[in-house]
Amino acid sequence: MLFTSFGFILFLAILFPLYYLVPKRFQWMLLLAASYIFYAFAGWGCLIFIAVTTVTCWYAALRMDRLQKRQSSYLKARKEALTSEDKKAYKARVKKKKLGWFLAALLLNFGILAVLKYTNFAIVNINAISALFGGGQLQLVDLLLPMGISFYTFQTIGYVIDVYRGKYPPQESLPRFALFVSFFPQLVQGPISRYDDLAPHLLGEHPFDRRTVSFGLQRVLWGYFKKMVVADRLLTAVTAIIGAPETYGGIFVLIGMFLYALELYADFTGGIDITIGIANTLGVPVKENFIRPYFSKNIEEYWRRWHITMGTWFRDYIFYPVSVSKPMLAISKRSRALMGPELGKRVPVYLATLITWFATGIWHGASWNFIVWGLLNGVVIIISQECAPLYQRFHERFPKVGATFGWRLFQVVRTFWLMSALRSLDCYRDVPLTFSMVGTIFTRFSLTPLWDGSLLELGLGVGDWVVAGLGCLLMLGVSLRQRRGSVREQLERAPAAARYAVAFGLTFAVLVFGAYGVGYDASQFIYNQF
User: Is a pLDDT exceeding 70 seen at residue 170?
Assistant: First the structure.
């Protein structure tokens, strides 16, 4: 059941009134039922996998907590009888058992994700190596890939890690925990929420609040506008360019990068707007996942603004643990001895950075283009960190340059095109082809296609280009207004006529200019594949 399907609109139209009509203590139960009904539309087989993840992580967290409580009780009851060595040995045994449950949950659930998502990728690479030596070929397997499996797996494993670290006690109720795992607005494309942020709101009681519901519906409408008016329209041109690389080289590669950046932003943030809006309408606040990323002045800032919950997940659960792990500390000690303290101390940090970005890349997709994309992001970040002293000396010598609008604009444009170039690996989905097509920018460059009518051969008419352009300008205007605070709160202070005009205008645009097409079947959100 896609967010842009008519069935989903009907689903929400039934859920919203029921949610505020049932007794408040039953609201979370209704949400749980609605979430499993929603997920069942993705296929009954998908329910098995999300149920396995839910039950195993819930049980492992409970077992770890029971071991910790038993340890506290045991040590308190035998405080005088045990020696310090006895206490140390007992704690070591308990820690080993906790680690066993922790690793069992991680290996089982990451194992499920790995088998379903990466088996064919492994087979393709094994076959490629085997072919070099004249060996036989393995057959690809047809495996079910449940919708949003990476999102709910990472969210649930984050909970297990937090319980293992003692950040908060586990949820005793399996149904209540199941709601955290399966909350339906997040299943399609995130955000990846933390238990202590989301669960108290999911399980709380929410009386009807006109302002909250109104704000939520406004956010949903804005998401539909970005998705259906802008993203799905630009998708046609992007598909035409990347689908015929032999025809569309040179400046078309730049045009494709630019349009894909706009399409991806409108698609992904549109979906997140719908997610957050639906959750808000139910009285459940959800973390923001984007904060004007295309205004970023460097790649590090970009990743603090783009898919924020994913970035913080990899930072907290991969980068930090890896960078302080025993092997990395040993590498740090050795590199300091070989390279000196200044350079040596950066080696483990950069290794942890590359490991984190490798994991980020493989999370995005089971193919080499995503792995290379992730590693290139890590390399660019490392290079920018190494160049930081040069930037500092430059600004010390020319202090006025950094304060100018022109310099800030240059940084924003530079970051946008750098990220667009890296993202071309996502477009062409083939590493050699991507580098070849980027090379044609320099070998086949010509501005003629901008005015010779070639743009009208990409599947979009003049009217489509106008609608898409106006939609992008509106997104830019809203982003600029957001720098002054919530646009919805600004609209609330505006005259009623202005509020109704905005609501009517967006609704009209979605209904009239939405990219439905003949035999309309809503395009999946790009991040559904994860």
Answer: yes
How is residue 252 written in tokens?
Answer: 């078309």
Q: Is the peptide bond before 191 cis (omega within 30 degrees of 0)?
A: yes
Candidates 301, 285, 232; CA nearest to 525 is: 232
pLDDT in tens, 300-337: 999 999 999 999 999 999 999 999 888 888 888 888 88
Question: On the CB side of 273, how many CA atoms lie within 13 Å of its CA?
Answer: 23
- 124 near 429, Cβ under 8 Å? no
In which residue are the tokens 């108290």 written? 200
Identify the pLDDT of residue 59.
Answer: 98
250: left (phi > 0), else alpha (psi -120 to 50), else beta?
A: left
pTM of the model: 0.91
Q: Give the DSSP per-residue string, 19-44.
A: HHHS-GGGHHHHHHHHHHHHHHTT-H
Q: Are the beta carbons of 382 and 374 closer than 8 angstroms?
A: no
d(CA 198, CA 31): 13
| Torsion on CA atoms 314, 317, 321, 323, rounded to nearest 10 | 10
**Cα separation, 51 vs 340, whole angstroms:** 52
Residues 6+ apart with CB under 8 A from 404: none
Q: Which of 140, 157, 169 is nearest to 193 (CA)?
A: 157
Q: Is 424 exposed, middle or buried (0-12, 13-18, 19+ CB in 10 A)?
A: buried
Task: Categorize the per-residue pLDDT at 492 as very low, low, confident or very high, splitting at 50, 70 and 90.
Answer: confident
Give the count of beta carbons closer than 10 Å to the beta carbon of residue 193. Answer: 25
Nearest to 299 by CA among 386, 381, 406: 381
Give every CB contact of residue 271 below 8 A, 6+ residues apart in sequence. 3, 188, 189, 223, 227, 525, 527
The answer to whether residue 371 scores a pLDDT higher than 80 is yes
Domain assignments of the chain as residue spans, ordered by start: 26-205, 212-309+378-515
Q: Estimate to the nearest angstrom the gap between the alpha carbon of 161 and the chain centroid.
A: 19
Q: How far is CA 254 from the centre of its chain?
A: 25
- The helix, strand and coil proportions of the chain, stated in percent and rounded to the nearest 5, come to 75, 0, 25
